[in-house]
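Bench log, entry 3. Co-assembly request; chain sequences pasted below exactly as received.
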Amino acid sequence: MASDTQPTPVSAKTPVTLREVATLAGVSVATASKALNGQGRMTAETRERIRETAQRLGFRPNSLAQSLLRRRSFTVGLLTNDTYGRFSLPVMSGISDALVDKGVSVFLCNVEDDQRLGQLHVDAMLDKRVDGIIATGKRIDRHLPVDLANLRIPVIYAFTQPDPGAIAFVSDDAGGARLAVEHFCRLGRCRIAHVTGPASFAVVHARAQAYRDVLTEKGLPVMVPLLGSWSEAWGHEAVKQLFDGKLSKSGGEKPDAVFCGNDQIARGVIDALRERGLDVPDDVGVIGFDNWQIVAEATRPPLTSVDMNLAALGREAGLTLLSLVGGEPAQPGIRKLPCRLVVRQSCGRPPGG
Amino acid sequence: MASDTQPTPVSAKTPVTLREVATLAGVSVATASKALNGQGRMTAETRERIRETAQRLGFRPNSLAQSLLRRRSFTVGLLTNDTYGRFSLPVMSGISDALVDKGVSVFLCNVEDDQRLGQLHVDAMLDKRVDGIIATGKRIDRHLPVDLANLRIPVIYAFTQPDPGAIAFVSDDAGGARLAVEHFCRLGRCRIAHVTGPASFAVVHARAQAYRDVLTEKGLPVMVPLLGSWSEAWGHEAVKQLFDGKLSKSGGEKPDAVFCGNDQIARGVIDALRERGLDVPDDVGVIGFDNWQIVAEATRPPLTSVDMNLAALGREAGLTLLSLVGGEPAQPGIRKLPCRLVVRQSCGRPPGG
DNA sequence: TCCTTCTGAGAAAACCTTTTCCCAAACCAC
DNA sequence: GTGGTTTGGGAAAAGGTTTTCTCAGAAGGA
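Structure output for the full assembly:
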């Protein structure tokens, strides 16, 4: 039993409609609608009576009916192929953050890498009259297995390969790499190696080029980036290659810093260095990429890493989609969002510090 | 330009309506509707003509209109507080798998641990007339910050604390623990330790009790479970406690197996054992929990771990929700779904094998 | 008193589909 | 030819809301 000091919203089996509110308030549905939406003209008394009645009955307008009429469903679709994604999940989270306050709900569709599944989801969303679609994925240089090119609703790409002429948000990988390498330089490291993933990833080249650029600008020696897999095991193997003198003839030229293409490689590198008796960060500094918190904080010492700000990226994507839905124009093109360096202990401190 | 050997679905600015199809086919909307839905009676020729017209125009019925009429939106809400969740993500994936083929789309709502946000999302979903709601989370013994008790639509709980009298699916943690400990027994290990998370987690007690039960049944010595945090660091620390003789007086009584409460602890344990010169699995076997693939496969050797089958759990939850929506009755209560042991190399092989 | 101008509120159309009921024509048997 | 049945298809209501148009009555001015 509800206390009767409070208005008790009747928990009816079936939702309260505007018609019921109108009847109880002794007005027409038209007037009721206008009263609740602050439209139309009526005495303050009438408006208040209707409001009160609606409140008492716990009236909430049926979104389906509204959407049908307004041709706007306050719903967007989020397409991804990153099922267990540590990349697309922060993106999603950012999107959701940006939209929930505006009353927009998000359909999450995992399309794996399956064309049929993709079409199924897109059709379902179109049928449900989503206001727009955001496509996201697990890497920046692969297209989702769906064709979003000629939809009649706005589409935004976030952390996935866009269609030409579309609007996309991606991380600035080159900028992120610069952040890491420049940080090493500032700390006085001068023999900086780069251990990263397979050549099939565009980001590998972007980051490696930035690595080379920074070192060249500073007049420091450029070592050839070691390409492998995105795994701890490759981190171990790379340390072997770097420190077993196969690459550098003279013993003195071993690296004093390693910039890694992701946090798992960095983890492998750190473990391998420790096993060789090399101290991190005193002998060798290490910086990772992705700032995958659970990995970065578990390494010993905790890993300095480049964060791609994926949540912010998602937020931007969400807001931009909304403005597009609202009819505002937007320049097509790829917008690169800056990364940031999260400094922990694996990179060392400045000489004076 | 589309080839003209194929029917070219006109990419109109505005969606094609049934009325347009009807007009073009020279019939009424009623007849058109019946033709496309296989209802009503008409000549085969008429039906075919209408179908063809619809096909040619690329007609797809407006889900909003259908939902409004049918009082069924083919939409469900998924509530979670596991933003970066490695638990709720597999669950979601299972749910989505189960529902996509039935044309059901899923609203993903991350409510963090915020009541206001939770209410916001629930209200939005209710307004949008979802057919049902699934609640999931990051742990089994915490309730989401929302009240789903007296909704007028079905609610299912999956991997989160249910309201009393509700339907819930959770993992059988005790069963999973048994799997691990019994596996050790089968391999001939007889001094099995248990290193797990904090006492504030219900699963810690469930698994510890199962651990004790199995050992008691087998007549093996029960060591007091070591409770700590869910971290690698605790794995290291626990090895120190186990092998520095503080617990067992005689040197011979050191464990030959460690059953860990999650994979991160197991990772820490394995690393710590190796650093002590103990071989895994020859000297000490290790089994983890969660089967978090990216961790389990990166440990050296790869980690045997208990998998909670979360995707299957999600699938069950999705299917059950659907049958509830369809009006079929279901027993309230908590259903525990079995775990499975994923054997890799950290636990050793049978003596004869 | 008559005409105009507000004012408050209702009727109805619109959004799009489904479904029930109904009707006219055709067909059949007698 | 008549009464009954089948057949093919349409009209209209329903679902819940918003918005435009309309209208009756009151107020104001002459």
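The first helix of chain B runs from residue 18 to 25. Residues 27-31, 34, 40-43, 46, 65, 67-71 of chain B lie near DNA strand D (CB under 10 Å from a C1').
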